[in-house]
Amino acid sequence: MAEKSTKPYLIRAIHEWCSDSNFTPYLSVKVDANTRVPMEYVKDGEIVLNVSYDATHRLTIGNDAVQFSARFNGVSRECSVPIEAVLGIFARENGQGLFFQVKAPAQPVASETNASNGNPSSPPGGTRPKLQIVK
User: Fold this and answer.
1) What CA–CA distance (Å, rounded) separates 57 from 70?
2) Mean of the pLDDT values across residues 34-46?
3) Tens-digit pLDDT profile for residues 63-83
4) Nearest of 5, 16, 18 to residue 63 by alpha carbon
5) Rounded to two decimals, what is the model's pTM?
6) How far is it, in rounded angstroms, from Cα 44 to Cα 66?
7) Local confidence band at 128 (pLDDT 50, 70, 90 cut-offs)
8) How big is the CA angle at 11 (ends 96 and 53), to the nearest 5 degrees?
9) What does the alpha-carbon distance between residue 134 and residue 122 come to, in Å, rounded to a whole number?
């Protein structure tokens, strides 16, 4: 059985802490094809959403997605954010919260061998990638 992610549980915990502390919980989201948010408010592929109970209707923080409806410029919109797309949840008033690393989308795996000669494929330029420490 696959291990369950702690991320949705941590998101719910910080949301509850914000609400109990009279802070405004904000959700930072990396927008992708599976994210349903008003695209006119997306900037550089990200959006920050007020997910307080006052700003949302039918807020559900599930194990797979955060779903709610909210008003944007007076118009009610349905939003759905996959848990994987959540970059962080924090209090607007003091910035305290949790931020997560977002996994890169799965890239198609290239063939391990060059079909024409049976040799392992090499990266472009013929050199192996290197790690470099940047200070």
Assistant:
1) 6
2) 96
3) 999 999 999 999 999 999 999
4) 5
5) 0.74
6) 21
7) low
8) 85
9) 25
Q: CA 28, CA 123: separation in Å to the nearest integer?
A: 35
Query: Which amino acid, residue 116?
Result: S
Residue type, 63: N
Closest CA to 46 of 30, 66, 35, 27: 30
Residue 117 scores a pLDDT above 80: no
Q: Mapped to the 3 state alphabet, what secondary structure does the chain carry?
A: CCCCCCHHHHHHHHHHHHHHCCCCEEEEEECCCCCECCHHHCECCEEEEECCCCCEEEEEECCCEEEEEEEECCEEEEEEEEHHHEEEEEECCCCCEEECCCCCCCCCCCCCECCCCCCECCCHHHCCCCCCCCC
